[in-house]
Amino acid sequence: MPKVGMPDIRKPQLVKATMAVIDRVGLHAASIALISKEAGVSTGIINHYFGGKHGLLEETMRAILRQHSVTIGGLLKALPADAHQQRINAIISGNFEGFQAENMVAKTWLAFWSYSMHDAQLKRLQRVNEKRLLSHLRIELKALLSRDQAELVAHGIASLIDGIWLRGTLNPEGINADKARALINDYLDKQLTFYSSNSKTTHKND
């Protein structure tokens, strides 16, 4: 975490520089020297406020997660509390638009995703993000499905989001947000129709 006193203007500058360097040379080759040169600051500033490369990487991941949360929160606030399927669609869209969909951000996220398997703190941040996504989805899905069904569909949507992100970042053309939304919403519609049909059949047989 950055030390108290780090000028607010420097944080986004350094985060952007970190993502640019990771995009260009990869996470392991993204040295403090390259990042400081990209940001136009001395290596001493990074070491002083972040304690080195790892602290700056952690702050960069936190910045991405904060922006992600702001994006989804804003989309949900614009919708009625009882518009559950629309709110699920908004959660899905929030993973594929704006800041999150920028190629540089997507590559940085993928690099962190891989690195987090071997770093406890980054893994914790990744788990926080995963739990937040599933929590958002469960809240809306439980209004439409049983608890067990909601749990299953929430994990299905989360898996599709992760898979599309992975494929998109490995694709030179990046993530196709329209196709991503269409694919996941198709899955959601089919699941809701399937469970709704089964519920009607069960009640009819009763």
TrEMBL record:
Residues 31-50 bind DNA. GO terms for molecular function: DNA-binding transcription factor activity; transcription cis-regulatory region binding. Pathway: Amine and polyamine biosynthesis; betaine biosynthesis via choline pathway [regulation]. GO terms for biological process: glycine betaine biosynthetic process from choline; negative regulation of DNA-templated transcription. Keywords: DNA-binding, Repressor, Transcription, Transcription regulation. SUPFAM superfamilies: Homeodomain-like, Tetracyclin repressor-like, C-terminal domain. Residues 8-68 form the HTH tetR-type domain. InterPro entries: BetI_C (IPR039538), DNA-bd_HTH_TetR-type_CS (IPR023772), Homeodomain-like_sf (IPR009057), HTH-type_TetR-like_transc_reg (IPR050109), HTH_TetR (IPR001647), Tet_transcr_reg_TetR-rel_C_sf (IPR036271), Tscrpt_rep_BetI (IPR017757). PROSITE patterns: HTH_TETR_1, HTH_TETR_2. HAMAP family: HTH_type_BetI (MF_00768). Repressor involved in choline regulation of the bet genes. This is HTH-type transcriptional regulator BetI. It comes from Vibrio amylolyticus.
